[in-house]
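Recall the central idea of this unit: under ordinary conditions, the amino acid sequence of a chain determines the structure it adopts. In this exercise we apply that idea directly, starting from the sequence alone.
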Amino acid sequence: MKKVKERPNMLKQLTVSDGSNSKPKSNLRISGIGGFVFAIFLLLAIGGSAIMDTNGVPTSIAIPYLIVMSIIAVYLLLAMQIASQWEKAVVLRLGNFRKLAGPGFFWIIPIADSVVNWIDHRVNVTPFSAEKTLTKDTVPVDVDAVLFWLVWDAQKAALEVADYRVAISWAAQTALREIIGQMTLADILVGRARMDADLQKIIDERTTPWGITVQSVEIRDVVIPPDLEDAMSRQAQAERERQARVILGESEKQISSSFAQAAEAYANNPTALHLRAMNMLFEGLKQKGALVIVPSTAVDTMNLGSMSGLVSLGFGQTNKGNPISTNSEEK
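Accordingly, the structure predicted from this sequence is:
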């Protein structure tokens, strides 16, 4: 019996990275004021214990003094927190939501209180894209976009979603793929404003329960396959050639109409026709090296004699006459 080889599992695990380490981040901050006060109390503790030791104070008093002052210094170091003007600190007490602190100076109780997140209330920018996404007419396109958003409720952003930055990035990407699948390539190329509005509406509906609002969505670039791009270029060129031929045909119709009107004017006025013919002959002879062929019948009708054939003038020769070559044909 033949042995059937097992096919290796070709499934690839999709990993999502937001640019941060997998280890949880510590939200403990050491403020400048807390560090300064900590240093002062630590110096007082060390200096006081040294003075007590030199003055013969019993160690039963000096050691507790040193311990108490050190505990106070550490307490003040951790309890004194400062939030910047644009951020709020989410404070939990024994695991329960306590308050939103900041901006500015605020106190916490070490060990009992913990700052689990610092929420930035400024406008944030998140770039996102959709690669090789099929449109409604099955054309793969790559679309790059930028999302402008901000947090309007820090409590919801901290408690309703684990990582609101990663969540809004994925929500924007899935919304972009959904919009692309509902539109044709032509609509995407010419209707970016509508696409931006639809994206903003969909993403805002998904992020509002997280305390996040979307200000705007901007489509940066739409990349289509090179073969399709060449085909569209040829199509546009053919369309322009068609329009040029249509315009040329309309011009010919107008010209023929003008000639018809001129023919009606010359039909009953032979003198005007002769003057026009002589003017055309003169205009042709003015050109340097001009070659004019005049039928003998036209010459006879203009009463110029029995001259017919080829008339050639060359004005390029210096200090010479204008040679004229004629061939006359007797009827």
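The CA atoms of residues 52 and 130 lie 71 Å apart.
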